[in-house]
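agent> Task received from the user: take the single chain below, predict its 3D structure, and emit structure tokens. No templates, no multimer pairing.
agent> Plan: (1) validate residues, (2) run structure prediction, (3) serialize to tokens, (4) report one or two observations.
agent> Step 1 OK, no nonstandard residues flagged.
tool_call: predict_structure(input=
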Amino acid sequence: MSYYLLPKNLHNIKSNELLVKVPFDLMISVNNGIGDGFINDLIFKLLEHKKNKTFLEYINFLPANYDFLVHNWNEDKINIIKNTSVYPSIIKSKNEKERRYNEYKTKYNNINLNNYNWAYGCVVTRNFSVYKKGI
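)
tool_result: status=success, residues=135
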């Protein structure tokens, strides 16, 4: 895998300029990327690739944890912002992750919460939709 770093201020990125091209076959993907369940399907596939030591260059490049994401904040951090306008959205985010975690355990069997938190962080910060042949 090659990485290219451009010198600062080499040029501005123009609208619709191609920055990265990734072959579809090199993407970790799910065929049914519809509805709410695709997040957990991607988490399952990511953890399977990690276990099977495939896509290791990519997986080893990912952060070791996602403690900085609001859905992973502990009560002490949440209490700091309890009386702010962002508090309801943080609680919603935490509840959403907990709901997905419980759904994951039901669909794919039990999983360690730390492993789920790591994979969830990877997926929610890096997934995007790609359409191939209208699907």
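agent> Step 4: summary for the user.
The helical segments are 38-51, 56-61, 75-80, 87-108, 113-126.
agent> Done.
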